[in-house]
Amino acid sequence: PHGGASTGLPLMWALLLFPAASLVQGCPADCQCNQPQTVFCIARSSPAIPQGLPPDTAHLYMFESGLHTLSEDSFAGLPALRLLDLSQNLLSSLPRNVFQPLPGLHNLDLSSNQLQEVTNESFHGLRQLERLYLDRNQLQTIHPAAFDSLGSLLE
């Protein structure tokens, strides 16, 4: 009679003791997810944002990653993102509404890329953005209304 109860006990202990395994489980192969809600995908050689990032990611570091392009769905499924570092890549343009899935983003680093223009839709949806870094790009055109929706911007 006790056999049924004891076989479930080790499984219960495993579930209680190892919930942190889920943090690493959803980590892309060429990234590191050692810290809770923080993902490092640096010094990669990939032209795109990796798939399969943990949905609770709050800090995403992708500098020196060889990024060439972003798509409208690059950041879909990352609603908790607060910091996004895309510096030192090869980005030459920003698709319309690319950051719209990130309403809680506070810090965005796009420095040291090859961006040539900022449109009025480049930062659409980033109402809580406080810090935006665009230095060391090749900016030629900045739309007059490019920063109008960024009411929380500090620097």
UniProtKB/TrEMBL annotation:
GO CC list: plasma membrane
Pfam family, one: LRR_8
Keyword vocabulary terms for this entry: Leucine-rich repeat, Repeat, Signal
Signal peptide (residue range): 1-26
Bilayer-spanning residue ranges: none
SUPFAM superfamilies, per database record: L domain-like
Protein's recorded name: LRRNT domain-containing protein
Upper lineage: Eukaryota, Metazoa, Chordata, Craniata, Vertebrata
